[in-house]
Amino acid sequence: MWTAMRELLRGRFARRLALAFAALGVGTAVLTAVLVNTAFGDRFDDYLAGQQRTRQQQLIALFAADYARDGEWKPQALGELAPTVTMTGSEAELLDPAGRHVWSLADADVDAATLALHREMMGIGELGPARSLPITVDGKQVGTLQVRVPQGVIPAVDKDFVASVNRLLVAGSLTAGLIALLVGLYTARRATAPIAELTRAADDLAAGQRDRRATTIPNNEIGRLATAFNTMADRVEKEDELRRTFAADVAHELRTPLAILRSQLEAVQDGVSEPTDRVIDSLHDETLRLGRLIADLETLASADSAAFTLERAPVSLTDLVAATTTGLADRFAEARLTLRTELDEVSVDGDPVRLRQIVTNQLTNALKFVPAGGTVTLTLREDDGWAELRVADTGPGIPAEDLARVFDRFFRGRDTRADGSGIGLAVAAELTAAHGGTLTADSEVGHGTTFTTRLPALGRVPSVAAREEP
After folding, report:
1. What element of type H or E holds 147?
2. pLDDT on residue 467
């Protein structure tokens, strides 16, 4: 057990937690001891003050009874009171109402040394402060008694009781500290075990073990952290797989045009063929193919930083979509596709360049996948404060297993017929998210695909522009 304790206490967090529990236990016990001793001290102070008041009242009653018996102060009768006053261990001096000396213990030949010896023998403590107490008989003040009575002492049994209580409190403090330390160690072990396991998983993941996951997932904040870590690790592994696939695809895409360029250039150099217009056009086409691939990579890199580089301004999304479709009308005509638009007047706060890129990527995606004779329909309207752009096509649709990954970076479906790097929709999704919106896809194989872009709208203008561009 002690070995496990030492191992646990090596951890900074565990050590602090265990010591905090121990300090809390000891601190609580110490506070209890202070409160108990304070209460006892107040109780004993009240007890001693009560003793003093009792002795003072006894002396006042004694002198008042003497005056009431004789009707006046008689020194001889007062001398008979000296033994009683001496037995109380007090010093007393009697004054008449005018403040003149009447009698004191010194008149009875009782000196201070005798009183001190008596108090020591009786164990009644030292004298308290002097008090002037009036003596009244039948409602009339007949004199003043200047008296000092013993302060009294705490009984031995009370002292023993306080001492025993303090011993119990000390023992309780040590026991509470030990119990709190053990509880702290247990709690620290339970609290730090998932953290330690998560740390090891993170170290293993950083060392290259992409399949490493956190296995201890408690039902608390640390469990949510472990779940978030596993989600992150899954995404890292997934993106690593996509990058490897993409790298292989890029290598394949680059290898083909480079091989053609190399073979044709070497043929020209060796005199096997002439640099005719046909050869030059072929080389030019392959160069354009390489350029498009590089441009796709640059577009993806720019989408990553879009949230930090947006130049926002109020934009008429209607005009922007209309201009984009007009710019692509020739390409749709060449592909023998019908492009239809149904556009309400909707404005948004966004970057015009990035917004145009979102629309363009979706339209060019339709150009790749919709067969000749098909139709692509753009619908723009405002719905509950959102600008909603739908791009619906009559293409072959997307298989269910690919639909969930259609916005993943570098992803291309297994049955893809079209050329491209497979990042156009990923870029569109990134740019839409940077504008605070969403991009979703709905599809059914054989029944086409609909992409829905939702962006925060600025306001509603109830005019409608509808046209059809064949």
Report:
1. strand 140-148
2. 38
Residue, of 43 and 270, whose pLDDT is higher:
270
Spatial contact of 67 and 136, defined as CB atoms under 8 Å apart: no
- Residue of higher predicted confidence among 12 and 128: 128
**Length of the chain (residues):** 470
Distance CA 339, CA 336 (A): 10
Q: Indicate whether 464 pLDDT > 60.
A: no
Find out whether 438 and 432 touch, Cβ atoms under 8 Å: yes
Cα–Cα dist 68/136, whole Å: 10
Q: What is the pTM of this model?
A: 0.45
75 or 441, which is more confident: 441
Q: Are 128 and 148 in contact (CB under 8 A)?
A: yes
**Window from 32-41, 154-163, 330-339, 420-429 with minimum mean pLDDT:** 154-163
Long-range contacts, stretch 167-176, CB < 8 angstroms, 24+ apart: 169/29, 169/32, 169/33, 169/36, 170/33, 172/29, 172/32, 173/25, 173/26, 173/29, 173/30, 173/33, 176/25, 176/26, 176/28, 176/29
Calpha distance 442→397 (Å, rounded): 9
Can you tell me the distance from the alpha carbon of 368 to that of 423, in angstroms, rounded to the nearest whole number?
Answer: 13
- Spatial separation of the C-alpha atoms in residues 357 and 363, rounded to whole Å: 10
Please say whether the beta carbons of 382 and 407 come within 8 A: no
Angle between helices 277-304 and 221-269 (to 10 degrees): 160
Residue 415 has pLDDT above 60, yes or no: no
**Tokens for 20?**
């905090």
Q: What one-letter code names the amino acid at 13?
A: F
Of residues 256 and 431, which shows the higher confidence score?
431
Residue type, 124: I
Contact 344, 464 (CB under 8 A): yes
The yes-or-no verdict on residue 130 having pLDDT over 90 is no
In angstroms, rounded to a whole number, what is the distance separating the alpha carbons of residues 227 and 221?
Answer: 10
